[in-house]
Amino acid sequence: MRFDVLTLFPEMFTGYLGESVLKRAIERGLVDVRLHNIRDWTDDKHHSVDDRPFGGGPGMVLMAPPVVECVEAVRGSEDSEDKGHLVLLSPQGRRLDQSIVEELAGHRRILLLCGRYEGFDDRIRTILRPDEISIGDYVLNGGEVAAMAVIDSVMRLVPDVLGDEDSSGEDSFSRPGGLLEYAQYTRPRVWRDLEVPPVLLSGNHQEIARWREEDSRRRTRQRRPDLLE
Ligand code: ADE
């Protein structure tokens, strides 16, 4: 699976790419993440990427030429036949959930276009027709954190990225029926007077499965009744 991230702040990704599951997936050649700086597609002396909005108003707007030219160059780069699925991160997009994550995981290459400032020149949308995705009804300073959320959730579904040990099948929202995950415990068995539910220590796998099923339902009813509808 290949991700191309188009951003004004590629350095924001370096810590994230160098840790844990993603780091291992990259080392094993299962996931490839390329960073592209939109500023490299400017041709003026100041390398400007933004300007004041026509019609007035606060803030700055990302200009169409560097953004569109960056996307076109990255898409057409010689090292990939697959032009990729273009995602634009913005609070105006369809809201990310596990079913959209699964849909995105069906692509072999995804381009993630991160916005900044007050928004984009809307002609970027007209020309590129991106799949616009939001990670929730709140406003971030830019699309970078949202792009990391997309990479993080999608790469979990890439075959072999997770070992059997921590496979994604039991995750909340991936479980049959899309319920929340059941409660988990580990050692010590008793801590600060709190005991682990005895059934989990019983060794009876059928009973344990039933308890987990019920706990999943109980939690979902309490925390996210909307998921049961
Ligand atoms: N950029 C700013 N806010 C965002 C959000 N909620 N989701 C995706 N991209 C964003």
Verbal overview:
- This protein has a five-stranded parallel sheet, with helices on both faces. Strands 3-4 form a two-stranded antiparallel ribbon.
- The mean pLDDT is 94.
- The chain is of the alpha/beta class and 229 residues long.
- It has seven helices and nine strands; from the N terminus they run βααβββαβαβαβαββα.
- The protein binds adenine.
- The site of adenine (ADE) has 13 residues, from β5.
What's the gist of this structure?
This protein is α/β, with parallel strands linked by helices and 229 residues long. It has helices spanning 14-17, 20-27, 64-75, 98-104, 123-128, 144-155, 205-223; strands at 2-7, 32-37, 50-51, 61-62, 85-95, 109-114, 131-134, 190-191, 194-195.
What's the arrangement of secondary structure elements?
Elements: E1 2-7, H1 14-17, H2 20-27, E2 32-37, E3 50-51, E4 61-62, H3 64-75, E5 85-95, H4 98-104, E6 109-114, H5 123-128, E7 131-134, H6 144-155, E8 190-191, E9 194-195, H7 205-223
Parallel strand pairs: 1-2, 1-6, 5-6, 5-7
Antiparallel strand pairs: 3-4, 8-9
Adenine binds next to β5.
Notable characteristics:
Trp Operon Repressor, Chain A, two-stranded antiparallel ribbon, alpha/beta, Alpha/beta knot, binds adenine, elongated, 5-stranded parallel sheet, single chain, 9 strands, about 230 residues, 7 helices
